[in-house]
């Protein structure tokens, strides 16, 4: 295939490659860049193309590999590797030490608020908190799933009211 024939074939197939580029990049400008890079690579490597093989498949492969290479390059650029020693933290006076008393008080209040709930609300709420799905709770308690959802909602609402003092504290 002559250079002119190869160039004509590339030009003819470029329109069919554009949707694939859009699918890969999900951005019109990036897709145009990828298409252009693919065409440049295909033209500069035309001597590697074997006559009689599928030119379209060859172009799709070049585009996919170009996209993967560009993506890997972008990920490497975005990765920050700190190679410095962390010796500057040894004598730092900016560190804070908390004794956890506030967390202990808050946990005591949360536990008391949960214990203060009526059993019909507390049991489904605690089961959901422990990771049970709504349908598992409904099956275990032998009540409709809508009732389970309602009771958990009411329990959350009551707990918000009882723990209102913690709302704006950080």
From TrEMBL:
Q: What InterPro entries does the annotation carry?
A: RNA_pol_sigma-70-like (IPR039425), RNA_pol_sigma-70_dom (IPR014284), RNA_pol_sigma70_r2 (IPR007627), RNA_pol_sigma70_r4_t2 (IPR013249), RNA_pol_sigma_r2 (IPR013325), RNA_pol_sigma_r3/r4-like (IPR013324), WH-like_DNA-bd_sf (IPR036388)
Q: Does the keyword Transport apply?
A: no
Protein's recorded name: RNA polymerase sigma-70 factor, ECF subfamily
Domain RNA polymerase sigma factor 70 region 4 type: from-to ranges: 109-159
Q: Which organism is it from?
A: Algoriphagus zhangzhouensis
Q: Name one GO molecular function term.
A: sigma factor activity
Q: Which CDD domains match?
A: Sigma70_r4
What biological process terms from GO does the record include? DNA-templated transcription initiation
């Amino acid at each position: 295939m002559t250079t002119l024939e190869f160039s004509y074939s590339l030009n003819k197939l470029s329109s069919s490659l554009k949707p694939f580029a859009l699918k890969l990049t999900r951005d019109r400008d990036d897709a145009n860049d990828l298409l252009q890079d693919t065409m440049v690579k295909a033209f500069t490597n035309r001597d590697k193309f074997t006559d009689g093989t599928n030119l379209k498949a060859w172009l799709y492969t070049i585009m996919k590999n170009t996209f993967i290479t560009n993506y890997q390059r972008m990920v490497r650029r975005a990765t920050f590797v700190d190679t410095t020693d962390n010796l500057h933290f040894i004598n730092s006076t900016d560190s804070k030490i908390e004794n956890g008393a506030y967390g202990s008080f808050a946990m005591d209040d949360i536990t008391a608020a949960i214990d203060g709930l009526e059993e019909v609300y507390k049991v489904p709420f605690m089961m959901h908190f422990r990771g049970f799905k709504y349908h598992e709770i409904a099956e275990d308690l032998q009540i409709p799933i809508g009732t389970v959802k309602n009771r958990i909602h009411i329990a959350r609402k009551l707990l918000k009211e009882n723990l209102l003092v913690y709302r704006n504290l950080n």
